[in-house]
Every structure is written in C-alpha cells, then in structure tokens.
Amino acid sequence: MNNTRFNRVPLSVAALLLTFVFVAIPVDAGDAFFKGGVVFAPRDVGFEGRWRLAFGADYPVNFAETVLAGFKLQSSIYRQDVVEGGPTATIVPGNAFFNVKYKSSSLEVRPFAGAGLGLVGDVRWLSSEFDWNKEFGYHLLGGLEYGRLVLELQITGAFDSGVDTQWAGFVGFVW
Question: What is the pTM of this model?
Fold first, then answer.
C-alpha cells in the first residue's frame, strides 16, 4: 500500500489515545499501571527492538477486590535493517489485551496471576509504504506487587503458529 499521508497518522492517534486513557481513568476506578520491560526470547533482534512499554488498568469485580478485569496496551518503536546494508524499516509493535487477574488481598506483598486475549501485531514502515501485521493472541502473566511497585513476567503469543511466542519481564508502578 503506497499512501504517504498515513506515515504520521498512527503516531498522532497513539499520542491522543494515550492522553485520553490517562485523563479518562478515574483515580478510584481501579489499579492503573505503567510498566517498562524487555523481551527475553526470541532474540531475533537487537536490544533496541526488545524493550516494551505497557500501560492499562484493572477493575475489581468482587467485593474482596481479588478478582480484577482490565486492559493492557504494549508498544515500542525501533528501526531494523531489512537486508544487510540495505534499507531500514521503522517497526512499531503493538499489543492490546483484555485481562482477568487474581491478586492476593491479605498480604503486604500481593502475588498475582492472570491471562488475557487480544491483538498481537506490529506496523512496519519502509520508505513510503507501510504494512500492518495483526493476529489474535493471548498472554499469561504473573508477578508481585509491593506497595506501588510491580514486577511481572509475561508470555505473549498468537494463535497463528507462524508467530513466535515472546517471554518478557516488566517493572513498573501501580496507582
């Protein structure tokens, strides 16, 4: 697809969406979070292509506030050579999941585990052309919350067998 006017649109839309999400989430609605992490496997790209930023929110669905439903958005941006010494592509991975989590409520350190379904994909720009690869996928997660600090391990994959499963670790804050 050759349409140069779309080159700046996805970044503008992402910035507006990010602003809307942070403004629209009420403080007492649930647990909002912001995390940064690194994809450990697969290692088919350099470090610049393995980091991720994630944000979202979890909302309690029971009175004990141990079962939560929510969403998570993950992305990064990096450049990668298409062929050795050839053109370079800009790549923006983008994952969006709806989650269900279980968190311990009686401990100071709150272990949690969860699962989600959603979109696993990326947008690739090369010269004036772009391609959006998207698949229906899943993620499994587990970790610990201590106060506002959160540590998380995550497995992300697509139901299409041609997409590699990713293992990632995240550190962030919950408010």
Answer: 0.74
Q: How many helices (H) and strands (E) does the chain have?
A: 1, 9
Measured CA to CA, the distance from residue 114 to residue 142 in angstroms comes to 6
Q: How many angstroms separate the CA atoms of 47 and 120, rounded?
A: 20
Q: Which of 112, 132, 72, 130 is nearest to 96 (CA)?
A: 72
Q: Which domains does the chain have, with CATH numbers?
A: 4-174 (2.40.160.20)
Which pLDDT score, from 0 to 100, does residue 161 have?
66
Residue type, 152: E
How far from the centroid of its chain's Cα atoms is residue 7's Cα? 22
Reported as a single tens digit per residue, the pLDDT across 16-74 is 555 555 544 444 446 899 999 998 887 776 776 788 899 999 999 988 888 999 999 99
Q: Of 155, 140, 150, which is closest to residue 170 (Cα–Cα)?
A: 150
